[in-house]
Queue: 2 jobs
Job 1
Amino acid sequence: MTITTIPAARGQFAPRMQASPRAHLVGIAGSGMRALADVLFAAGWTISGSDLRADALSALTYTTWTGHDAAAVNDSLELIVHSDAVPTDNPELERARALGVPVLSYPQMLAELMKPRQGAAIAGTHGKSTTTAMAAEILSVAGLDPTVIYGATPVAPHSASRLGRGRWLLAEACEYRANFRHLQPQTAVITGIELDHVDCFNSLADVEQAFAEFVARLPAEGLLLAKAECEATRRATRDVSCPIETFGCTGAATWRGTMLRERRGYFSFQLRCRGRLVCDVKLSMPGRHNVDNALAAAALASHCGAGASAIRQGLDRFAGLQRRLEVVADNGSIAVVDDFAHHPTEVAAALATVRQIYPDRRICCVFEPHQASRTGRLLDDFASSLHNADKIVVAEIYRARESGEVPGGVTAAELAARLTERGADAVHLPTHPEIERHMHDLLRPGDVLVTLGAGDIGTIAHGIGQGIREIRKAG
């Protein structure tokens, strides 16, 4: 068991809780939980936490326990918050219940933080983190200083999750287990709906029903911002009682991107609201999908009080998120790009963008499937989305929240075989050392290495990227 120290707590927590309280976060190394810890700490809480991932804990400055032990919990705590990845029989949760310490899940705590503020919840199958961070950047430029909580790490530190002094709280709202139904925001964004999280949703209709229940919590005087081109979103929101505005690049969208221009994967466009020109936008992170994210962020920020100048400056200043088409290294000969993509739509978008950034170069892709259930259910879609790469390595499946035999699940070797059947140059390599050796032999001048997946595959990108940077430095 590892314990680190925490700096002194500071300030006071604004929302309805006593001064200098102590909170213990079970599963603190998760991306959303880390963001929550930072916001609570900035508000004056003393924070401790536990997680199974010792490597992830090493980056935290709070008192942390490697592993889960009832000894981490005592009656001096005001609150226990746990990740949804933590089972109900976790010894720390059981100890907290025995002591009478309140226990909240991450989404329940998010709901508590949202109650005394103007809440904006950003939901959707793809683009939640990026849209939340973009909107936060715009509001910061506008001087509105929002509180922001989302599950990703920005390239620029000023874009991180944080406690603000303004009245708005922007939160990424996840559909997993329909957890976003705990929230009751004034404003919501839906970036689009597809089948995902097949470990808790049996069909697209089930996903749509969860979103319908989420938007039903919006007050009549609230606002829903929805993706114009998404049929599933239209079905899920048809009974909503509050006003709806749409965003997209179609003529029917309330917030519309026009005059799109692309240069090496980076887009610029005109932002219009109900046909009226708001501002010209030039994005600093690549990808056609980020045009839609930017439209959603601009619409949300405008309703929060940001003007046209702040929208333009904020989107121009936003440098992106780590593991979202992040160029880890580029020595002029070999480039390494890392992305969080773990759904076929995201994989296809990432590879298409990489081809725009690096035209006429060979793309070598390492894909780490995320969950056997998702891989099995979307097997043919994954095979289609990955086929765009020239060389493909399928890593072992990252078994998040899964153990043992998974109904409908497949193996990584089966995905590689499906790719080969379709004519792709694909191989399955089960361990990171094997993948690294394979890439050492495979990569040649002019190549682009792309690592894709929501697990730990990014460590390969950073390891190989470090070697490439050292080669350039030596040269």
Job 2
Amino acid sequence: MESRDQNSRGRIEAVCVSERRGEVKRAVAAGILQPDHGLEGDGHAGPGHRQVSILATLSIARIKAVIPELEHGAFAENLVVSGLDLSGVQVGDRLAVGGTAVLEVTQIGKECHNACVIREKTGDCVMPREGLFCRVIAGGPVTAGDSVVLTSGREIPS
């Protein structure tokens, strides 16, 4: 399947996990996306519609301008993506990640929790508006540098 246009291709900048919910995620060398579960070893993985979270490097860069010491995983994102315009993504769109994984966007944004350090320091948090949440349709390995291709509709990219 063809991607929507040249702005629908990007790459993974970081893969992040935390052992438990409520902990800041940390970047890891690689991960395994498991179908209908999420990122292996991540505290947020499990059944449901928010198995994997994604945030764009552009979203993170705006906050890093105020808090330069932020590291990947600070927003509890599993995948940090660059070179892909996520602003037009819709629920139901699919992302082909690496060679075999397919994610389906199930939610855009989520309520920021009360103790959000980023919101306290900057007055803003991008995850409520710009974070993508996905269900893993097809699993596979994921590492920094892997491609990410956005497709429209509910078709699995080939």
